[in-house]
Amino acid sequence: MGTPANPQKYAVLAAPSPIEGTGAFAGEAIPARRKIGEIRGEMISVHEAWERVKTMERIMMVEISPRRAIDASRSSDPLRFTNHSCAPNAVLRIRQGRIEIYAMRAISAGEEITCNYGETHHEGRLTCRCGAVNCAGKL
Questions:
Q1: Tens of pLDDT along 57-96?
Q2: For the SET domain, which residue ranges apply (predicted)?
Q3: How many angstroms separate the CA atoms of 35 and 76, rounded?
């Protein structure tokens, strides 16, 4: 069996982020409404995901169904560093068990790629650092 195809449709680079830690940045201009790429990782149960996040400094876990989650903490996909923003330029979609990220608008080369995480298990305990004018302040 060969190497799986690269799920990235556009160049994405991981670099220090003004929002939080490492972020995902466009390595080239990305047109609006285009698939940027995917986040791959280990498929695990939601129960196992809850156990793992207890010991993680940076959570890279996405629930893809009520019973399954993907742990992207050991993935090489740079989109795993996509930070939250209350004014995002991209959207995360779950399609057939895959985590896909699409541009909501044109994204310039060098711009940080962000998604609105929506409802999280942080229950408002984390401070949002996105800096958007309409920032909710909490995740």
A1: 777 888 888 899 999 988 999 999 999 999 999 999 999 9
A2: 8-118
A3: 18
